Amino acid sequence: MEKSFTQKYFDVTAIYQDIEANDKFDMGDILTKYEDYGFSHRWIQPPVACYWVHTLDEHGNVNVAPISMGTAMWGEPSDCGWYYCFDVHNRRQTRRNLMLNRECVISYYPSNLMQESHISGMPIPKGISEIDVCRLTAFPSTKVAPPGIKECASNVEVKILDMYPLSNNTLFIGKVVGCSVREDLLEADMKIPDEPGLAGADLLYECSITGETPRLNYGRLSMNRLRCDESLGDDRRWIGNFMTWMDAEERRGRINEEEHARLLTLNTLWCENPDPLKNGAVKKELTDLLREICWRKI
Length: 298
Ligand SMILES: Cc1cc2nc3c(=O)[nH]c(=O)nc-3n(C[C@H](O)[C@H](O)[C@H](O)COP(=O)(O)O)c2cc1C
Description:
It contains 9 helices and 11 strands. By secondary structure, it is an alpha+beta fold. The strands form 3 sheets. A 7-stranded antiparallel beta sheet has the order 2-1-5-8-9-4-3. The mean pLDDT is about 95. Flavin mononucleotide binds near residues 68, 87, 89, 117 and 123.
């Protein structure tokens, strides 16, 4: 018998309205706690590797801030490339500098730089470089003005394309224009069968903020890696499309010729009319068949 789970619902909008109405935030920190709402924002934000955002002010002073809201994403042709999205509070120097220069370096740091991460997040006076205070080593970037940090696993050069306001924060969207990788880590990665890159670089993530003296608890992203089932899905590409997927399933014997033809027909009928009421029978047959073949033992 399958185990059945129950879910507890939280009205996140109402929780945050209450926090705002009752002034329950402290210098911008809005942390939902079990004591207050039986809820923690850690159920919204999964572990995301922390990184530094390096920017320059109008005088050329370097600023480095640790950030954990945001990540990289890729795009397809035309204009394919890698992009980066991250969110900073409006009062941050990082935000001021990005509005001014629209470029930055995003660097990923390994867990042995945890104290440096802690130091860099302190209210260090504007214009004083966290790279110097943290005893790290700067090096020139290629396509953007802010420097990279030699001790980091990678330094991603980003040009800001757009921004969007979010509750007194700014969401920045940038395009990746270059990337420096620490050579020792690059060479080691080439010898690892699943080539994890940053996933193997022992990065840190922001886990929670707890304690009488509130402190960040970091987690290490030195996690085990799991490989997806090679006996299910397109056998030549990572994802492919519905047709290449079904071709692969017939080739490996998961489905027979007749099922293959029926699946393609159902897919066409469903694409022509994706209305769940008017085309409910097609939707049901296609769903049932897919559910059955995905879990079929072969
Ligand atoms: C691990 C870590 C992650 C953080 N993530 C963010 C974030 O995603 N957005 C943000 O605005 N501040 C974040 N902060 C707080 C800022 O880094 C911190 O307030 C810093 O001093 C801001 O520097 P700035 O004013 O020079 O930009 C984070 C701090 C730490 C230590």
